[in-house]
Amino acid sequence: MITWQTFAKYGCSPAQLALAWINHQGEDIVPIPGTTKIKNLDDNIGPLRVKLSKQNLKEISKAVPIGEVVGDRSYQGYSNLSWKFSNTPPKGNN
Questions:
Q1: Which GO terms describe its molecular function (predicted)?
Q2: Where do runs of H (alpha helix) occur along 2-81?
């Protein structure tokens, strides 16, 4: 189980540990966090300094089994604002 002591061990916040874990999933995997504030940008860059061993990655992965991570990508109330419901004109209609 991941506790606050776990984050202290890595010297980062829970969000930073999540980004660091994603960064260590392979060279073809890149997290794309969004932000509108410089402070948050600095926080999102911080995980690049977090080094995780194979054992660390196993510990983190075991704490959150993939089968327990389910649900929509975004809040259900915003689904009607999604690109899925846009009315984009066909290509060539300028």
A1: oxidoreductase activity
A2: 4-10, 14-23, 38-45, 54-63
Q: Are 47 and 23 in contact, with CB atoms under 8 Å apart?
A: yes
What is the percent of the chain with per-residue pLDDT over 90, rounded to a whole number? 13
Domain map (residue ranges) of the chain: 4-66
Query: For the stretch 13-38, what's the b/e string if a residue is b when 16 or more beta carbons lie within 10 angstroms of its beta carbon?
Result: eeebbbbbbebbeeeeeeeeeeeeee
Tokens of 21: 């874990």
Output Rg (C-alpha) for the chain, integer angstroms: 18
Six token digits for residue 38: 């410089």
- Residue 76 near residue 15, CB atoms below 8 Å: no
